[in-house]
Amino acid sequence: MVLPDLEQENQSRPKDSLEPGYLVICWDDPVNLMVYVTHVFQVVFGWPKPKAERHMLQVHRQGKSVLTRESLEKAEHYVHQLQRYHLHASMERDG
Amino acid sequence: MELVKVAAGKYVFQLGKLEWPVLGRLLELYPVVPTSHHRLSRNEAGGGARPADDALLQEAMAEHRRQNQQRVGLLLRNHYRVTPHAAGHRLVLTREDLEWLLQVLNDVRIGSWLKLGCPDPDQGRAFALNQTSIPYLVTMDQAGRFEGALLAALEEDG
Questions:
Q1: Do A92 and B102 touch (CB under 8 A)?
Q2: Is residue A5 one of the residues assigned to a domain?
Q3: B144-154, pLDDT tens digit by residue?
Q4: CATH number for position A47
Q5: Model confidence over A48-75: pLDDT tens digits?
Q6: CB A36 to CB B113 under 8 A?
Q7: Cβ neighbours of residue A93 under 8 Å, at least 6 residues apart?
Q8: CA gap B81, B23 in Å, rounded
Q9: N or C: which end of chain B has fewer CB within 10 A?
Q10: Per-residue pLDDT tens for B25-79?
């Protein structure tokens, strides 16, 4: 078994990667079904339907919705999950 | 495609005579979206993500795709889960199956849209109706229809 070189891995990440300074954003597109987007938000974030619908409508009407603010690794995790479903999601540094 | 019942965590669907061949054909098309389509950030500067992070994302997506492809193959060959029925076919899926099937169908839908050049009539990017585009439009529409049926079943099950 090969153990990861944690020291080297930590050094290669930005110092603030553990701070919740990264926004997970979902962008509007003309192809994903609204009911599908709501479902994906419920599954990925464990949100109740009304909250998932609120964010879905924000995406639809305003072009994007900030879904959560997380550390670098958590933000990456959520973007990975959303992209598995082919939602147009990205992470951006806050501020 | 309609939900007949949910029993012991299994979703039993009734498919019309033409629906199973159509669904099977859609699943055979998977994957359609290229892995290079996936990026962590829209920002050219990376938005805090490093180029290596994009590579990791694409690697993860490629692996996920391989797993989904295997599952598609298993479903298409599994005669216990897809059985002929007087009205067409019966399809038995677990809750987990529903989730990856949604991902697979949406890959086919989004991939077809990408092949059409990402049309968006609201932004003035209309699609051309011709012999090349029509199969992609039909594929998008059919994939969306099956997605809708799966989501309706989940809604019905609460």
A1: no
A2: no
A3: 999 999 999 99
A4: 3.30.1390.10
A5: 999 999 999 999 999 999 999 999 899 9
A6: no
A7: A21, A22, A23, B47, B48
A8: 14
A9: C
A10: 999 999 999 887 877 877 655 555 666 777 888 888 899 999 999 999 998 887 7
In 3D space, the residue among B38, B108, B62, B35 whose CA is nearest the CA of residue A90 turns out to be: B38
In a domain? residue A59:
yes
Among residues A26, A65, A67, A95, the alpha carbon closest in space to that of B48 is found at: A95
Contacts of A75 in chain B (CB under 8 A): 48
Whether A90 sits inside 8 A of B113 (CB atoms) is no
Q: How confident is the model at residue B129 (pLDDT cuts 50, 70, 90)?
A: confident
Local structure of B36: helix, strand or coil: helix
pLDDT average, residue stretch B110-132 = 90
Q: Which residue of A has its CA nearest to B60?
A: A80
The total number of structural domains in chain A stands at: 1
Q: Which two tokens stand for residue B116?
A: 């059409």
Best of B32, B35, B39, B41 to substitute, by most chain A Cβ atoms within 10 angstroms, is B41
Assigned domain for A20 exists: no
Range of the structural domain that residue A60 is part of: 30-94
B79 class by beta-carbon count within 10 Å (0-12 exposed, 13-18 middle, 19+ buried): exposed
Residue A6 in any domain: the answer is: no
Cβ of B48 and A33 within 8 Å? no
Domain residue extents for chain B: 2-157
Q: Looking at residue B12, what is its pLDDT?
A: 96
Nearest residue in chain A measured CA to CA from B32? A86
Q: With contacts defined as CB-CB under 8 Å, which chain B residues touch A43?
A: 99
